[in-house]
């Protein structure tokens, strides 16, 4: 996740499940037993966690408190204060952030019965991670600095967002071949320092942890023994500054050669041995803007499935302000209910990647983003894989409807409205999971592939032609 340029299941208070580990008759056993049990168990709230990163530098537009315009506490079970940065001696707040906001953030979370964690690192704040990991003494000192910061403000947990372990991120980070191995040595020291009641979280790339050979580690099981919650940052897969074509910010399925996807990332992490029930699927609340070469959308085919998500780009691309979902509406590019394009844009649904996009032929601007439909589909997928929940980057992006879609997806009851079903075929040529208001989708097996999706599209599209 970026800082500061950009960088959930909407649960009512009565439905929020506290994040705790189940108690046994051995609660008073030795600490070693508690740690051993923690390493092999799942949190009781796993499967229903909706969380968001709160960008503290935007406190003037979304405050940390409980008043109107503040962090959406009612829509989240966990909240991540973003961000604290590494320094040569430990951690600190970057410029523009105040300790007063931290105090309000934590007090508000606890007042609402939510868990408050702080994230250290991020795109611009990961410079010194590697230096703090090079010896046992330095690892212990860094663990103590994190615990001091946590206990000072009463946070319930610590999120390590090292961008990136074993490889460069922002360009100024210290990087060593032994970063991954040293980080694994650090985790038990951190646990010993903070105790067993404090959450240890980590935010990791979609591609996994980079090892000494430059490749993603084949096994992450040992990391999973120490990390309570791991956010897979399964977004920024396409952006105009590094992509050869347009593409979704977070495609659910791989629909283009040499492309990543949410499905591929989750399956890779699970295959590497990380416990699924401790994984939070990171989902975006912001967009990416591209400019296409043509005024018309071209259709490509991947493994027999048609998609319009990958368009040829102009040589010169516009600035990419990463507008939030709410920003698309306030800018006049998307209708207030998110169902249609506006201001010269048409909203399209790509059935292969299961994501929407906006396109304006007049300006040749193509905008990728996520909405209630795509977030609901991602949450359904997270549920099918037994994940702990979803984590939004960031809290300023999603609307209430988007949060609600995440909640229903994790419950397995995500559905769409009859009003959306009447959407024009031009705005949305085909959709998946389209049902009437009084119908709900119960998902017991969500092992979808683009090929299976294509079969469903053909049936749905035909039935709609009859309706229209």
Automatic annotation (TrEMBL):
Stretches assigned to coiled coil: none
GO molecular function annotations of the record: chitin binding; endochitinase activity
Catalytic activity: Random endo-hydrolysis of N-acetyl-beta-D-glucosaminide (1->4)-beta-linkages in chitin and chitodextrins
Domain GH18 span(s) in chain numbering: 48-413
GO biological process annotation, one example: chitin catabolic process
Superkingdom in the source lineage: Eukaryota
Keyword presence, Disulfide bond: no
Pfam family, one: Glyco_hydro_18
Keyword Signal: yes
Signal peptide annotation: 1-22
Keywords annotated in UniProt: Carbohydrate metabolism, Chitin degradation, Glycosidase, Hydrolase, Polysaccharide degradation, Signal
A single GO cellular-component term on record: extracellular region
Family: Belongs to the glycosyl hydrolase 18 family.
Name of this protein: Glycoside hydrolase superfamily
